[in-house]
Amino acid sequence: TTADSIFYQSNDFVGYSHVQKLVPIIYKDKWTKNCLLFFMIVFKAKAKLMNFDYVNKFTRENALNLLIKLPVKNNIPDWEYMEKHIECLYLIEKDSISAIANHINNPLEKNISLKGWKRFHLYDNEMFDIDMGTKLDKIKMTSVNPTINFIGRANKSNGITECVDEISGLKPYEAGNLTLSLGGEYLGSCFIQPSPFYTSQNVVVLKPKWQMSFNVKMFIAIMVFKESQLYYKAFIDELNRHIKTDFSIYLPTKNDAPDWQYMEAYISYLFQQQSNTLQHLV
């Protein structure tokens, strides 16, 4: 369906419906694991440039017609180049993992006490107004002079799948609001939007009822995603019928109200932790 799930399989496997396999038909003895990994990386990168999604689906026909570039030597694929390139990547990753492992062995731990946490609906007082979004189809959008982010059911880049033209008469949502994917493969993906935006089908907009800080929004977005992944199921029991009724998340409390100060401090701590980790890796 999308280009995100293209992988090299090292073991025998059985695929469910809509899963296709690619196998070499020429130079079969040359396609080592590393060469196949190289091909997979290039093929996946090219496919992702085509902006396939649940509306504009990545099909078998698309895959068969996709042209990619590979290094060549004497007019055939340069197997040695591909082999050495992947080996080089392995060495880089090995060094990175070693550095991370050394840092993990000396962590800066912060214990979390769940005492006093309670459940809140997203529509509760001091939480959010839930807007059902613009419900636009990306395939019908234009990008002649793109200025507006288009938010789809994605789990990366803040859910931004495209930058599109502003539609006359349709005001985009303001930066700082949150978006939440109600269904699909990335059910529960929740992001703070950095710029004005439109949304696709099944993406709602969470508008804070007060001037929430970035850190508080981030804390809530994390809890929304975790709750969604734990208790809801894509294509079976999605958030559509729950988001304005019984969907709730755990939050720390103070005097029976959300403890905003705790959330602010905890996310600040996580940012500092990541900064320290990066300094160890550089």
Short description:
The protein has 282 residues and is of the alpha+beta class. 31% of the residues lie in helices and 16% in strands. The protein is globular, with a radius of gyration of 23 Å.
Structure description:
It comes from Moraxella nonliquefaciens. Residues 117-276 form the Type I restriction modification DNA specificity domain. Belongs to the type-I restriction system S methylase family. One of its GO terms (biological process) is DNA restriction-modification system. Keywords: DNA-binding, Restriction system. The chain is of the alpha+beta class and 282 residues long. The protein has two domains: 1-105, no CATH class; 118-281, Adenine-n6-DNA-methyltransferase TaqI, Chain A, domain 2 (Alpha-Beta Complex), CATH 3.90.220. The protein is 31% helix and 16% strand. The protein is built from five helices and 13 strands. The strands form five sheets. Strands 4-10-7-8 form a four-stranded antiparallel beta sheet. Strand 7 (178-181) and strand 8 (190-192) form a beta hairpin. The protein is globular and about 70 Å long. The relative contact order is 0.11. The mean pLDDT is 88.
By CATH, the architecture of the largest domain is named: Alpha-Beta Complex
Helix-residue proportion: 25-40%
CATH topology of the largest domain: Adenine-n6-DNA-methyltransferase TaqI, Chain A, domain 2
* Coarse shape: globular
Name the helix and strand elements from N-terminus to C-terminus, one letter apiece: HHEEHEEEEEEEEHEEEH
GO biological process, one term: DNA restriction-modification system
InterPro entries: Restrct_endonuc_typeI_TRD (IPR000055), Restrct_endonuc_typeI_TRD_sf (IPR044946)
Protein name: Type I restriction modification DNA specificity domain-containing protein
Keywords: DNA-binding, Restriction system
